[in-house]
Amino acid sequence: MALVKDGARPTPAAISRNMGQIAQAAGADAVYVGEGMAGYDRQRLVGKRTPFIVPGRQLYLPFLAAAFTERGTKKPRVFDALGNAAQLLFVRWLSGLLPGVVGIGEAVAHSGYTKQSVIRAFDELEFFAIGRRRPGDHHFAFSGAPLAAWEEHRDRLKNPCRRRVGLAAMPAGVETAIAGTEALSLRGMLAPPAQREIAVFHTDGARLPTLAAPLAEAPIIAELWGYRPTLMPDGGIDPFSLWLTLADSPDERVQGCLEEMLGAAR
């Protein structure tokens, strides 16, 4: 049996790798023993056929064809993708606007989402191994360096822009951030576009129809986002959400500027 040292919480992939190395060196089956393991981590270990014991809760020993689970335990939650709240917290951390270890209350204040939405967001982030909950204090810790985490997980992220609408004038009383190629121009990478480009949280979209104008002719293009745009010091959206909104642009200049922008962040 291999026990966790000093309260460490290795990932299922690390556990499987280490158990394989121990078993090979010892010439015997190796069983991981750990307390406080999340349900979906246990599920992943079962998927990898990695023997483990969570004292008082679950035992899985495939080499003995033995598996026992405490009666009445909750079925682990499984997620297909990151939701809007989880993605917002992730990009705010990537952008240096959220600390590496964040509590529920702080996450609520940063995101504008409810406590329940933030708890679910932590579940999603942990499920996809973007970070882990700290035992006992309701804090979430992001894993690794931001740019490395971006490279590893960006395929899980979605374009926050739900649709684009044309506006005849800037909306009053609506929180906006500079978006699109105009945001790239703020960072000295492109000439400013002919049309202004802004990002707006989709729930504020109800205030915009009175300013509507044909998209091709409108002086302002508004992107309606699934989460509240993160405003950077230059007035533009965060670089990671900006990359997601422009990743499919056919303009080679735009693609080059996006890579330059992320290169500068490195």
The chain-level mean pLDDT equals 87
What is the distance, rounded to the nearest whole angstrom, between the alpha carbons of the first and last residues?
Answer: 42 Å
Helix content range = 25-40%
Low-pLDDT stretches are none
Task: Give the ordered list of helices and strands.
Answer: EHEHEEEHEHHEEHEEHEEEHH
Give the overall shape: elongated
The domain count comes to 3
| Gyration radius over CA | 23 Å
What structural class do you assign from the helix and strand content? alpha+beta
Spatial strand arrangement across the major sheet:
1-2-3-4-5
Q: How many runs of DSSP E, i.e. beta strands?
A: 13
Count, helices: 9
Task: Give a brief outline of the structure.
The chain is α+β, with helices and mostly antiparallel strands. The protein is 35% helix and 18% strand.
